[in-house]
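Mods, move this if it's the wrong board.
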Amino acid sequence: MNKTSTGIGMAILKKDALALYPLLLLTMLLQMLDVLVSRFDAWSALSFFLPTMIGLANGIVTLAVIQADSPVSLTDDWLCRPVPRRALIPAKLGLLALVIYVPRVLTVLAVDLLQGRSLVESAWEAVLFHDSVELLYLPIVLMVAVCTASVIQGVGVMIGLFILVFVIPTPFISPPGPENLSVGEALQVNGAFWMAMIPGKTIFIVAAVLCLWCAYARRNQRAARAVLAGGVSLGVLAIVAPIVLLPWQSTFALQKTSQGRQPAPVSPSLHQVSACFPATRVPDAANDRQFDSVGERFGLRLWGDERLKSAGKDAIAFVTQTSVRGLPEDWRVQIAYVQANYYGSGAAPLVQLRPARFTTPGAAGLAGGAPGSEIITRAWLLPETALHRLAQADAPRLELEYSAAMLEPVSLQLPADGKRRHLPGIGYCSAKRNALDDRIAVDCLSVGHLPALISAELAGIPASRVDAGPVDFAPRLLRALQVQQTTVEVQSPDLIESDVVTLRAYFPKGFATLRAASNGLLGDSLTACPAPSAASQLGPQMSTWNDRSPHEVKSVAVEENVQIEVLDWGGSGPAMVLLHGLGATAHSFDDLAPLLSKHYRVIGMTRRGIGRSSHPDHGYGQARLAQDILRVLDAFGIDKAVFVGHSIAGDELSTLGAHHSQRVTALIYLDAAYDRTLPVSSRYRELNASLPDRPQPRPEELLSYTALRGYFDRVGSAPLPEGEAIAMWNVNDRHLAGQRTIDLRLLQAIEAGIPRPDYARVHAPALAIYATSAGPDALLQPWHDRTDTDLRNTLRELQSMKDAMQRREIEKFRTGVQGARVLEIPGASHWILLSHRDAVLQAIDEFTATLPAAPSIRRDEGG
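Not the wrong board. C-alpha cells:
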C-alpha cells in the first residue's frame, strides 16, 4: 500500500471513528468487561447476558462500519475522489479489529500481568485465538453488510437467516428414536465436533472473501448476494452433515484419517461386568423404584415420555456395563459412539439400537468400577416391535460396537498453593484450595500442541478424577494458532493428607472399533437371563437374607459426625480386635469370630468409609485410622488387645505396633504383612489383564445365601459369610445384585495413606500367616481352559513373579520385626480366614498360648 492509499485509509478510519464513536466505545467496553467478569468472577449475573450482548454489538458494529462507505465508494466517494479498494477494505477491517480484537488483547494482557503470570504466558493468551463463536458468525455478518444498503436492512436479513436456519426447521426436528443411529448432538462432546465446525467456519470465511471480491473488485452486487446465499447454505450444510446426514462410520473414518491412520498402539479387551443386564419393562419403570435410580443416572429419562410411550407396552429398558482392560497404566479409552446390534442366524443385524446418551460423565458404573479398568455404561430402549422381531430368531445374540480413541497421558503433580507453573506437555497451570467450598480449583492454559482432554484428580485417588470440558480430536495443525483455557474443580481434598493434584493431558494415539458380544437379549441366553415380563415384575424378586452370626451390632463415635460399626461377639478371656481387609467389612469374620469367642473377648470393627460405618471425606491416613481403633478400645473399656488383621489391615497393625505398643498385646497378620508402597511391574499388570474374567453370579444365584454358596462352589472359592454378602453385594436390589456397594474414592484414599512399613519399630509379639502357593499351577481356576497352553504359561509366569515377591516380603517381615513368627499355609487363598479357617484358628490359639497372661478389660464394657 503506497502513501496515498495509506493516507486515504487513515482518513476513512478517522471519519468512521468520529461518526460511530458511541457504538465503537460501547463495543470495546463490552469486550473488556467480558474479560474482567470471567477473570475475577465478578458480576456473575452479567455472565449470562454478556455473550448475547457482545454478539449483537459485534454484528451491529460490523454492519455500521462497512455500510458507512458502501461499495459504490470505489467510483463516487463524498470525500473528494474515487477510493481505491486497497485503502477502503484494510481501513474497514482494521477498524473492526481495533474495536473487537484489540481491546480483548490488551485487557487480557494487563489482567494476566497484574495476577502475576509471566509475560510469555500472558502474551500467548492475549494474542492467540480461543475457539470462539465469532469466527462462525462474523463472516456472515460481513457478507450481509456488503450486500445490504443500511444497518436496518442488514439486521432484517440477519433475522431472516436466523429464522430460516433455526426456527422454521424446528417443528420438523424431533429427538432420535432408539433405532435411529445418527450421532446427532453427541458430536458436540465426542471429540469429532471439529469436523462440523472447521469446514463450516472455513466455508463462511472463504465466502466472505469471495463476497468482498465480487462487491469491490468486480462491483457486482448480484454476484455478492449469490455468494452470501450459497456460502450460508453450504456452511450450514457442512455443519449439519456429520451430525444428522452422514452415517457415523463415514465420520469415524474421516476422524481416523485426520490422525494419519496410525494404528492403535494397544489392543484393549472388553468384558461384561454383570452376568445379566439390569432390565425392566418400560410400562413398569415408573413404579420400579430400584431401576428408576439406575435409569435416571444413566439417561433412561432422556428418551422422553413420548418415546417411551411409543415404544410399546412390552418394550424393555436395560443398562449395559462393559469394562475395558489391557490398557497401559493411566491410559484411557474415550468412547465417541456406540451402537447395539442384535443378530439372529444371519450375518445382517435384525435390530440396531442407539443408547439414550452416547457419552456419560466419568468412568464409574452402577456401583463403581473395578480398580485398573474403565467402565462403559449405557442405557438402552428395546421397542416392542424390535422385541417381536427378535422373538422370531432361534438364538439371538447382542454385539456392542464402540468407536474409541486410545488416549496417552502426560501426568504431572501440581501443589495446590496458588502458584503459576509451567508444566511440560500441559501448559501453564495453577491449583488453589478453597477451604470454604472444600475443593481445589485448577486453571491451565495450553499453547501449541493442545491436548485432546485434560483431567485433574487428587494424588493417588484416580476415582476423584474430573475431566475439563468435552474432548477434542481436531488435528494438531488446525489448532496451531489456538490457546486452550481449562478450569476444573476437584472435590473433597481432605481425602488425602497433602494438597497435591495430579494433572493429566491426554493425546490421541490411535482409533479403533471395539466389540463386546454376548448371547441372548440381556447378556446371556434367554434361559439364564430371561426378558422381564409383566408376571416377573409382579412376583417376588428376592428372598430374605439374614445375618446369622451371633453378634451384636454397635456404633462408636470416634470423632464428630463419624461413627464406626462394631460387631460384638462377646466371649471371655483376653481381648481380641478383628480388622478386615480393603473393600470388606467386619462381617468377613462372621464365621471365624464365634469360634474365637470361646477363648477370647472378641469384637470386630468396620473401617470408616466402608459398609455401615460413616463415610466422611477425610481421615483415611494410617495415623487417623489407628486413632479410630483406639477410640473403639476406649469405648469398650479395653486396655490392651490382640489385634488380628486381614490383608490391608496389616498396615494398621504395623502402625499400632510402632506407635501405640502400650495398647497392643500381640499382632496377628492374616496374609497381611506386605509393603504396599512398592510399585507393580508393568509386566505383571499386562499378564494379569490378559486373564479370563471370573464369572459373575447369575440372577438365580443371588436369590438366597444357599444359592450364592452354589456360585462360590462353581468358581472354586470359599464362600463369603452371609453377613458380608449382605453388607457388600447389594443382594437386596435386584437390578444391582452382585455389584459391590463401594465408593472407590474412599478405598483409594485408604491405599494412598499407607506408608512403608517400619517393622523395626514394632515392639509387640507378632505372627504373620501367609497364604503361599501349592505349585506352579496354583493360579489355575475352574473357569480356565486347562488345555490352553498359552494361558497356563501365563499363569505360571504370574505365579513365579508372585512367589518371588512374597518370598522377599516374608524375609523382610521375619528379619524386620524382633522375635517375629511366620507361618506359611500352602494352597491357601488370600481369604485365608475362609479357605483355611481351622488352620488359622489353631495357629492363633498356639501363638496366643505363648503370650504372658494379662488383664485386658480395665472397666465395664461400653459401646
